[in-house]
Amino acid sequence: MNDVNFSLRHDRIHAIIGPNGAGKTTLVNLICGRETPTSGSIIYKGKEISQQSSAKRVQSGIVYTFQVTSIFSNLSCYENVAISVQRSLKALQGKLLMVSESVIEKHVSKSLGRVGLNGKENQTAGTLPYGHQKLLEVAMSLAADPELLILDEPTQGLAQAEIENLIALIRDISKSVNVLLIEHNMGVVFSLAEYVTVMDSGTIMAEGTPSEIENNRGVQDLYLGN
Amino acid sequence: MKRKSLIYSLFLKGGVLLLLFLMQFILPTYHHSSFSKIMILASYAIGYNFLLGYTGLMSLGHAMFFASGMYSSGLSILYLGFTPLEGMIFGTMFTLTMSLIFGLFALRTSGVSFLIVTLMFGQTFFLAILYYNEFTFGQDGFSITNYLGSLVIFGKEHLYSDPSIRYNFALILLAVYLLITTIIILSPIGRILIAIRENEARTQLLGYNVFSYKLFALTFSGALAGISGAMHALLFSYIGTTFAEIHHSISPLLWTLLGGAGTVIGPLLGTGIMYYLIDFISGITSNYLLVVGVLLVLTIIWFPLGIMGTIRQRWLKWLP
């Protein structure tokens, strides 16, 4: 990363694109706290959060889904989402030990239902098809009560029908949550994103609406082709 | 599912504890004493399992906690004139404090590094006992029989070394450990510990301060080990360095893996099986460790998750 000034567009689906090694994942790792900047600052809701742990950032509303799906493979889908629900309920209620299992159950059902995984509660997460594992991870992220949801290449490895399903879901999520999307699939970016940042070699080379980016000569030469 | 799991689990454990209670009336003297030892060592293993099986942290220094409970309670009775109860409480608080301080340092590492750090600290503790031998009696160890006094129960006097006292105190300790660990594992805290074991990075990125939970697990596990050590000192009166040696850290690992890491009742089963296996085979050959090792390998091939772990996977999914 080199002298990057990035501003997340509020209330829009904001996408970051760029070739491999451009610094996209590094940028989101800095935002979600998986890496610490050597210089500069990260401001979220008016507060400096550069030295905050990743856990604290999740508690503040910044939730990240991994590029390679990261779920609790040996646990049931119910438990996967319950782990996330429990923390966000605790934040509301302030009493970890007193969080009622029936309340957790209700929230888990709601989260699984939202991504279309109702009925899969007792299935072991690792036995789900890959596309469903991605959806499970989204359910876990939604259960964490995000204000900013960072999706790192969410369509990677998915079949076309699954991609379309996920696009519809992300569009639905974006009505209540800010979405930051990192993607290589240009079809997904141009159908979803309302604002695009293009990165290359650790710097931001262009920003704008999808049509502005599509018509940007430099971006075409670097990444999109004619 | 959790409530069902708790109810079935309490029935199972209640049944096992009832069986153990009734067995004291029919066991021959030798086995009566063996069962007392097994129950205390199983309690130690339950504490160990809390860290390994439920949080995914493998320690090779747990003998340090067992021995610290044993030595702190024994030495306080010997030198400070504490009563057995005061000695137990002192031993518990000492080990709790030691586990907490140790955890604050050791949990800055993970994986193999954590294993090595626990091994180092365990060995340091063992060597410290030997070094300060004018105080700890070094390799000879010491007995506190003459300092324990007697227990009065329902108007009748008993020595701590009475077989029935040993057996029932060990049983009570085991029962309390089984109950407490079951409740914690089935609680929201247990869910987080299991999440950490399964995928620590994910758990952190769901908003949990993973370090705090690991510190809780290590401190609690160390305290359980320490209380087991203190109880062992009271009931068997002998305090010695053999309980601080590395093999006493490896033993609960083997008992837990054999019985089923990540199951509450597995360590009890594993401890019992290993105890009698060694007892039986050492009567036949001096190379008993080789034979035990081969049998362990064969058992793990058939039961890769340990005995209770494999049973849970295949049949009893509700087993905590």
Assembly context of the chains: heterodimer
CATH evolutionary superfamily of the largest domain in chain A: P-loop containing nucleotide triphosphate hydrolases
Shape designation of chain B: globular
The general outline of chain A is: globular
How many domains of chain A? The number is 2
The first-level CATH class name of the largest domain in chain A: Alpha Beta
- Profile the largest sheet of chain A: 6 strands, mixed
How many helical stretches of chain A? 9
Tally the beta strands of chain B: 4
Average pLDDT rating of chain B: 92
Q: Summarize model confidence as the mean pLDDT of chain A.
A: 88
Structural class based on helices, strands and sheet pairing of chain A: alpha/beta
Q: Give the count of helical stretches of chain B.
A: 15
* Radius of gyration of chain B over all CA atoms, rounded: 19 Å
Query: How many strand units of chain A?
Result: 8
Structural Rg of chain A? 18 Å
Portion in helices of chain B: over 70%
Q: For the terminal residues of chain B, how far apart are their CA atoms?
A: 11 Å
Biggest interface in this structure?
A-B, 32 and 22 residues
Q: Can you walk me through this structure?
A:
The complex is a heterodimer of chains A (226) and B (320). Chain A has 226 residues and is α/β, with parallel strands linked by helices. Chain A folds into 2 domains: 1-61 and 146-226, Rossmann fold (3-Layer(aba) Sandwich); 72-143, no CATH class. Chain A has helices at residues 24-32, 54-60, 77-93, 101-114, 130-143, 160-173, 186-192, 210-214, 217-224; strands at 13-17, 43-44, 47-48, 62-65, 148-152, 178-182, 195-200, 203-208. In chain A, strands 4-5-6-1-7-8 form a 6-stranded mixed sheet, with helices on both faces. Chain A has a two-stranded antiparallel ribbon with strand order 2-3. In chain A, strand 2 (43-44) and strand 3 form a beta hairpin. In chain A, helix 4 crosses helix 5 (130-143). The longest helix of chain A is centred in the middle third of the chain and has 17 residues, at 77-93. Chain B is mainly α and 320 residues long. Chain B has one domain. Helices cover 74% and strands 4% of the residues of chain B. Chain B is built from 15 helices and 4 strands. In chain B, strands 1-4 form a two-stranded antiparallel ribbon. The longest helix of chain B is centred in the N-terminal third of the chain and has 27 residues, at 29-55. Chain B is globular. The mean pLDDT of chain B is 92.
